[in-house]
Amino acid sequence: MTNRRLLPAIALLLAVTTAACSGGGDDRPPAPSTGSGVDASTFAAEVASTDLAVNRPERVEVGVFSSTSDSGVQLLTFGKVQLAFTYLGSDGSATPQPGPTVIAAYLPAPGTDANGTTPTLMSPDQARGVYQAEDVTFDHAGIWTVAVSTDIQDLGSLSLDSTFSVKPKPSLPAPGDEALATKNLTIGSKGVDPVSIDSRAQGDQPIPDPQLHRWTIADALKQGRPALVLFATPVYCISRFCGPDTDALAGLAKAYPDRAVYIHIEIWKDFDHSVANQAAVDWLYRDGDLTEPWLYLIGANGMILDRWGPVFDADEVAAELADLPAMKS
Q1: pLDDT tens, position by position, 62-85
Q2: Cis peptide bond prior to 293, omega within 30° of 0
Q3: Whether residue 78 is found in the same domain as residue 155
């Protein structure tokens, strides 16, 4: 198989290091200082959501982070921010056209601290996540920008912007599409390095969460069983969301064992040589890039019901699982 270039859905720590250390960036001038005590030139915003498409309700996730010589990398966590979207034309050169303005709430990576109520800078070792707005609809394909506005605890007001693209239609499998009948690796796969099945199986350790590695998508579709499928690489994920996402999938499997089969698909077949597993390539490789993590809910009829990426609300996923009829044993 041809080697693939893997891109995380949001590489927060990598992005902020690049933004803080490089002089070139995206050719925009540094943002001015805003509010009391906020030096906006030390901050950056990044649209975490990929594969956004026109004329369909989308979950939009935005990460905000800061890097200084005194405090190092910190992520903005907790509370809410305002997102104001503007359309810049098919190539980004048109007269700006105002789009939706929404409030986005903090969405922590599963299992991380979510107790704060006011936007606060935190070390990623203490808390990490994104701000998510649901049901955002973009009426034009092309280049958009989002202005992120909020008040940061102990610092003051901050305004940042980030540019992203909206496509005429999704590039990856999306709700309403028929799921791909993929024969992903399982614990029953012969002659396969366990690390290719789950990157946590390092150093002769057994494959963790075996209940997540028993089914192929193809088998679930053949038997008419709903499936909750996570594409993620817990060990090698730059964004640090894959491990918590995989743990959350295991928790959902225990809480709702009769609603779906649960499948974790490891991204890497051979990490050292940058070779991705074919199942990940089939679902996520488009236009020269492979993005992850992604979570898919597939119905018993084989149609994709919903998808989340890169961070998901486990309670929201649980509610959709609870709405499914119990499977026959």
Answers
A1: 999 999 998 899 999 999 999 999
A2: yes
A3: yes
